[in-house]
């Protein structure tokens, strides 16, 4: 056999690599942690949970702040209610005193325009003008000396005055009862109705 017979021709295919020889030239594959779908899902759930917990903490802070503001508002409302009731209580005391001074022109009746039971309507005529006030049930005992009449009684018929008009009537009546005049020495002299009538 000649040497040319053993040499491959240029167009001749190379012989296939034998399996045992291929193992010698195989490249090692890098060792990495496989990126599984389950791992991605756990990571995403962890991130979502962290974000949700952060949002819950923010909303809880808002809720706590709202609760504190609501408590302050409730306390402020209770304080204003006490102040209002105190003012109405003092007004009732003064009205009871005034009606004791003017028994002939004072009457009290059930209030037809308040739905709650026990409210009364006080009518007082002073200086020829009618004035009226609602009386709270808690203050009813202060007016036991006032004549009680039916809502149809002529003395218990509202003449249409409003709050501003009532204040004007009170002011005018006060001016009639106490005329403030400057004397020669600059002092104020008060003339009452009793002195004028005497």
What's the SSE blueprint?
Layout (H helix, E strand, L loop, with lengths): L2 H4 L12 H4 L14 H65 L4 E5 L9 E7 L2 E7 L11 E2 L14 H15 L1 E4 L5 E4 L1 H5 L1
Parallel strand pairs: 1-4
Antiparallel strand pairs: 1-2, 2-3, 5-6
Low-pLDDT windows of residues: 181-186, 190-198
Global shape: rod-shaped
* Portion in helices: 40-55%
> Helix count, per DSSP?
5
**Number of E-state strands:** 6
Taking all Cα atoms into account, the compactness measure Rg is 50 Å
Write down the overall mean pLDDT: 80
First-to-last CA distance = 170 Å
Q: How can the largest sheet be summarized? A: 4 strands, mixed
β content, as a range? 5-15%
Structure overview:
The protein has five helices and six strands. With 198 residues, the chain is α+β, with helices and mostly antiparallel strands. It has a four-stranded mixed β-sheet, with helices on one face. A two-stranded antiparallel ribbon has the order 5-6. A hairpin with a 2-residue loop joins strand 2 (120-126) and strand 3. Mean pLDDT is 80; it is low at 181-186 and 190-198.
